[in-house]
Amino acid sequence: MTVNAESVLLILLGLNTKKSPGADEITPLILKQCARSLYTSLTDLFNLSLNCSMVPMDWKCGTITPIFKGGDRSDVSNYRPVTLLPVISKVLERLVANKLTKHLEGNNILSIAQHGFRKSHSCLSNLLLTLDDWTLAIDNGNPIHACYLDMSKAFDRVNHSILLQKLKQHGVTGKLLAWLENYLMDRVIQVRVDGALSKPVAVTSGVPQGSVLGPTLFLIYANDIPNLVRCKIVLFADDIKLWASIRTSEGCVLLQEDLNALYDWSLRNKLPFNFQKCKMLNIGKCVEFTYILGPHRLAWTTDEKDGCLD
């Protein structure tokens, strides 16, 4: 993969100047205002990185700023971590992400069930598809059993070895695959509080938080999920909604078999489910059935907020 100077210039001129810089303190405003002076040199730098399959170590350092959400200030759960990465590295990430997306979408590689982080897909398209299918089932007198499944810190737990294997299976090879491997390795994070920085901590799993490439890499990681099931399924990134129109008890058995397949996938891919957030929703005439996800019995609920609305 190589990048051309015009693409680099276009991204530089389109930078959001309200965004914060990473540890290098080079702001988007500086890069945007100096774009026409910098873009040829940055193009050479980016192509050198891609050809050598190496990402500078300074670009792999994320700075976490804890944002207070409310409540007890001494409780760490009341803070939302925001990770800042060097803007220059995110410019290169955008170029790589565009290349990956063109490959994935142009070859119809991504599952039609995935509605997250994709052009012409959204939370709205997710909900409209669900509404149409459920309405049709209810109009025909068939109740719906829907499973709302939540993975626990999925983006932070992506296994790098498995991800690289899946990238290869999705047609990403050669220097680009080697570059992505280097991009994922030897990453560190630091926490900044009141201007003071913590010691760097190694990041050994997950797609980089605050990155441009992270969402696309996760879509590849989860792309085989819909192939495992026979019931209806839609995803919004890591949020899974699985359902069946229940005409007989055989429909319940089929839905349970799909839950078994998803649980097995979570074990193989080292992405555990958050059992406390996994629920069953019944719509229409009640059909009694006990569903399990691995060792956990799924609780029934009368209402559930769709994960894509969070």
Automatic annotation (TrEMBL):
Q: Which Pfam families match?
A: RVT_1
Q: Could you tell me which InterPro entries the record lists for this protein?
A: DNA/RNA_pol_sf, RT_dom
Superkingdom of this entry's organism? Eukaryota
Q: Which SUPFAM superfamilies does this entry report, sorted A to Z? A: DNA/RNA polymerases
Q: Where is the Reverse transcriptase domain?
A: 48-310
Q: What is this protein called?
A: Reverse transcriptase domain-containing protein
